[in-house]
Request: fold
Amino acid sequence: MDSTYVSALAVGVLVMLALYISLSQIFDTDDRSVKKSLALFCAAAGLLTTLWLRQHPDALEDYTVKIVAAGIAVVLALLALAKRTIEKK
Reply:
């Protein structure tokens, strides 16, 4: 597989998951049709992101670097939070 395709797909999946997690908190309901519509919307957004990034590989490189840097920052923040929580006990 082409590395551009894999990178674009990974970013698209991350966009889909981020949207679904954030919007599912807003639409906190037990209605199945709302959950299905939300999942469909998030999947479409992820797919469109993937397709757009495949057409614009220069933007893909920029976004991939930013996502990796943000991911490392989140992991370090979670480690610091875990260490702080353990020290309080």
User: Anything to note?
Assistant: Residues 24 and 35 are 8 Å apart (CA to CA). The mean pLDDT is 85. The chain has three helices and no strands. Residues 57-88 form the longest helix (32 residues).
